Amino acid sequence: MRKNKAPVYRPGFRGRLSARQRDEICMGAILTQNTNWGNVERSLVELHRAGLWDWAAIAATPARKLERWIRSSGYFRQKAKKLKIFARYALGRSPARWFSRADLLALWGIGPETADSMLLYAGAKNAFVIDAYTLRIGKRLGWFNHQSYEGAQKFLTSYLPGSTRLYAEFHAVIVELAKRHCRVKPSCPGCPLLELCPHGQKILS
Predict the structure, then answer these.
(1) What residues does each domain of the chain span?
(2) Of 33, 137, 168, 187, which cross-links 12 as Cys (Cβ 3.0–4.6 Å)?
């Protein structure tokens, strides 16, 4: 039993996931809303130290205690409520049946990005995740000029074959590109997509 270790979460995870790994990914998808992964990892470590390994434990934990353990992820009161709502939902489902996107979006606090993250990384479903990085890079490359989640998702999936592995890797590459080069204040020199990027070429001209 991994008592004092953070769960290992990797975009593009290969192989069969255990029920605990799927739970951890779903917890992380909720906690990462409006914060960075480093803050989420600290919250997950605290949850593990407290013995909150699964949704039954989350559901049984008083909200005040849960808030204290996930404080590092920010918006901890809202996120504690979201975790408890999701826990009750997950416990009411058959273990053999994975969540549907419609079911997830009907829950309070679960938006398209969180739902698709759960479906892709925990459920191994063909759900392309659109985040702020994707919208930023797509706009700068001229892929789309809007900020619509559904529009960006439709654009990208129309060009990519429906593959869970490809969707996970593509999203991971976007995140890495955004961290290294396509930041809010871009660092264009050395960007592998510079030749294809009107925004970057304009900056460096």
Answers:
(1) 19-122, 132-204
(2) 168
